[in-house]
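Summary for the steering committee. The consortium agreed at its last meeting that each partner would contribute one worked example illustrating the joint modelling workflow. Our contribution is presented below. We chose a case with several input lines so that the handling of multiple components could be demonstrated. No manual editing was applied between input and output; the record is shown as generated.
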Amino acid sequence: MNHLLKISNFIGGKSVEPLSGKYLDNYEPAIGQVYSLIPDSDANDVQLAVDAALKAFPSWSAMSNDDRSEWLIKIAQGIEDRLDEFAEAESRDNGKPVSLAKSVDIPRAVSNFRFFAHALTHFSSESHFMQGIGINYTLRQPIGIAGCISPWNLPLYLLTWKIAPALAAGNTVVAKPSEVTPFTAYLLGKLCEDIQLPQGVLNFVHGTGPQVGEPICIHPEIKAISFTGGTATGRRIASVAAPMFKKLSLELGGKNPNIIFADCNYAEMLATTVRSSFSNQGQICLCGSRIFVERPIYEKFKADFVAKVSALKVGDPANENTKTGAVVSESHMQKVLSYIQLAQDEGGKVLAGGQRIYPEGRCKDGWFIEPTIIEGLSHDCRTNQEEIFGPVVTIMPFDTEEEVLSYANSTIYGLATTVWTENLTRAHRVAERLESGIVWVNCWLLRDLRTPFGGVKNSGVGREGGMEALHFFTEAKNVCIKYQ
Ligand code: NDP
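What follows is the complete predicted structure of the assembly.
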């Protein structure tokens, strides 16, 4: 094991070993083997990071907006300059195609830093004039230390989506990347060391949820928690952090509907639906996993969709032509396969995929699952109600708008919905009635970073993105001045 690369924590501007000296295995999903070791940190390492972040806070929060903006731009530029290194690390950690990491994940991480670098220089607060009496204005001040906890599916993208606004607003940060995909955060720490970001402004503590995530959530000096992950973990975090009156932003699970009306632009819908179902092996919180198709085009859609999905190339993520890589871990693969079995037990028919794949060559022991399409299930069975978070979708026909809205809104989740129709009136009407944080009409994953992002119902509370993220990471104070 000694020859394996050891990832370190990044605390106080330096790479440091975990105080306990303990490490965990980090697996490469495409080959099913350990390829590095990550710190098995605990509350003592979190305390070190908090000490560093507390020390850095006075000067970072007092720094001019222009100077803070410059630092974020330097980080963005650094990631862009090392695009290949970051993309390869992300693919190796997560199993996703390196081409996807290069074209989506890493460029979007760069955009996160660039966007908030600019947003902070345009940030303004509200004022409210009380005619003839006085004036109120809102003073927004950094909170102190922000705790950022992120999942494994889009490791650098989702981590930077939290870190960038937290730093932009003048906070210092203690972050925990997913234990399953730590490598890009490790590279980001190295980058911050190279560009000499002021020490303690940004700290990464690697390790498990219970040993590192929870100590972050209950630490009295960490005033805000921004978390993205599963609904059960979100519930646990809320139960420990809410009684401490911390600010909480929880971006949680989903079971997103994709609603296809017969009058849609068919070719565009079909191509996008393949992507929205199976990008990143279906492990994007925004992927559509329940596809509802208006009856007149159902059979045609079924045939075309099955043909396109069956042709997706599954294999070595390092190969530029691969469209579908490995799922993130062996336990996750087993969970997804168990849902495919459950779907069949519930009466579903597998139209495409359904099996584990053993690619030839170096990936023969990797964790691969065929992109899978299932039909014949009711909208309220477990397969159509629970989050699977893998390359599995169900398809079913519908006859009326009312009917499809009742199917779409029938889960505990409400993260994102895609609607395909050329009927503008219907698009607005349906969008209004969907219980969903995001409604995409005739597109998917089109993001404008100025817009608030997040789910409703059990998909989360709080909104990230745009100026709302800067608001989240600040404390608002009302100053009321009477002049009469
Ligand atoms: P988890 O909830 O298992 O983990 C998310 C993060 O929380 C990890 O870093 C994890 O650490 C940590 N964690 C676990 N337990 C605790 C705890 N008690 N206290 C603090 N932190 C803890 O999610 P996954 O990593 O499995 O990610 C997949 C989930 O994320 C899916 O449900 C998906 O829908 C959701 N997601 C939601 C998005 C949204 O925007 N709404 C976007 C992307 C994903 P460790 O790695 O050690 O377990």
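The mean pLDDT is 96. The chain has two domains: 5-252+459-480, 256-449.
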